[in-house]
Amino acid sequence: MKIINSISHMRKQVLLWRQERLSIAMVPTMGFFHDGHLSLMRTAGNKADRVVVSLFVNPAQFGPNEDLNRYPRDLERDAKLAEDTGVSCLFYPDVKDIYPPGFQTWIRVDGLSQGLCGTSRPEHFRGVATIVAKLFIIVRPDMAIFGQKDFQQLQVIRRMVMDLNIPVNIIAHPIVREPDGLALSSRNTYLNMKERESALSLFQALQIAEKMVASGNISVPEIIRAVKKHIQSFSNTKIDYVFLGHPESLRPCREIVGEALLALAVWVGKTRLIDNTLLKQQANQAHQIDKSKGSEI
Amino acid sequence: MKIINSISHMRKQVLLWRQERLSIAMVPTMGFFHDGHLSLMRTAGNKADRVVVSLFVNPAQFGPNEDLNRYPRDLERDAKLAEDTGVSCLFYPDVKDIYPPGFQTWIRVDGLSQGLCGTSRPEHFRGVATIVAKLFIIVRPDMAIFGQKDFQQLQVIRRMVMDLNIPVNIIAHPIVREPDGLALSSRNTYLNMKERESALSLFQALQIAEKMVASGNISVPEIIRAVKKHIQSFSNTKIDYVFLGHPESLRPCREIVGEALLALAVWVGKTRLIDNTLLKQQANQAHQIDKSKGSEI
Q1: How far is B114 from chain A (nearest CA, A)?
Q2: Cβ pair B134, A165 in contact under 8 A
Q3: Residue A198, C-beta contacts closer than 8 angstroms, at least 6 positions apart
Q4: Closest approach of A88 to chain B, Cα-based (Å)
Q5: Domains along chain B?
Q6: How many CB pairs under 8 A join A and B?
Q7: Spatial separation of the C-alpha atoms in residues A172 and A155, rounded to whole Å
Q8: Taking CB atoms and an 8 Å limit, are B108 and A105 in contact across chains?
Q9: How far apart are CA A212 and CA A223, in angstroms?
Q10: Active-site residue A37, yes or no?
Q11: Where does the pLDDT of residue A116 fall: very low under 50, low under 70, confident under 90, or very high at 90 and above?
């Protein structure tokens, strides 16, 4: 595996691969790899000839009071994990090269960046969109793999590449979980034992919602109430948001029709965790609704 | 000359040229070509194997009360002029393809977009930066030629390609003028005979400033006063701004040291015209200043 620090070396490597007509899949990360990251890398390896993993703890997507400085870092460990997973190249540029003196150009995806995580993290998605565009322009991958845990990020990036004509295929990877259901996250390392128990409330709340929908309840207020109640029954939890709405527009809905996104952000102690699931209205429910409206399928 | 309307066809053409290892120079335009445009195209032809001229009247860079609808258009005439100038490809995408439904991604170059034209045209440079980035991503030129008449635009684009790592060499082309000095502009077609006379006040004011500097006057307030006085002596003129400052940072200065940008925006009737020049402090003046400060070179 090549470890590349300089932007110009990265470009040269990409050019060589392009000349050999090799396809490139990219996995942008902030490092401190867990099985979720490794799973994205394996998917990338199955889909393309070469896999580039970028490792960049992006200051622009952290708010002033967020955890930029204590965000976990371990380049040596990450390099070994990436190499063992079959990655072709680990690209870890310096902050001073990515944001040189006088840097002042920002990419904003207006509507999709608002609401959900955008409410409590107002410049977060500006930082995400800008760094991902820069990485795509430098590496020119054919495809890039993103975890579905950051669902809003995934939709922001999908919209950005469409709007800016960046020729990269965005592939979503399902959330990878611990055996008990906790979604993998580098931030899980912040949790103590008691907090680790409370952190499970997110996954459990998603399951409660799934069961409600499966049993025919499609009322958004009722589902949100049950989700909140469950999370609040755990110690040291503070809900940032519970969102239920359209997976593409990220606008809230009043009833679940077809497919809806249930997304959570919850503080557990000083750690902010997110999780989500797609709630699917059952086929027989759709039938019932149409019947109640008097319009048989 | 190829005339290409579709983004995907444009990409295919570029790919063919790339496979033949041909270099590409791009000239982004809003059409209604005058000698200024043709001069950019000739420069492009001297520097690269293939020249792509884009023709797109970009709604996103017009304000709500600006001249988008009456902006002059003549595709047939433009195509003939481009072909006669040796252009390889005229790319004229549709608005609906450049800004598809749900479009919401914007590129902002923060500091450089403020002041000068940014004051009276608040979203103008956001529109410029976004369309130019999109065109660069689609056409992937090795270089792009921009007229120095839109000096602030030139600096915004230079900063943007640097900040977003877009690998394109930005080349500035000197302002092309009528024999009497009026800077060429598609908007000159709006001027009636009386306004055409008043329009000359911009170039004349620049010349007055150049003479002042040549004769040793480096006081910014005095130069601005003389420039304003000259323009206001013409009928039907209304000054939008007179800027004198650093050519790179676009911050105002108090004295001319080294090189300074003098940039003007003036309404002549209902037509807004811009012009600029670089004022260069004479070598012997720099010497005098250093002497007055007691620091001999």
Answers
A1: 12
A2: yes
A3: A234, A235, A236, A237, A268, A269
A4: 22
A5: 2-173 (3.40.50.620), 186-278 (3.30.1300.10)
A6: 73
A7: 10
A8: yes
A9: 7
A10: yes
A11: very high
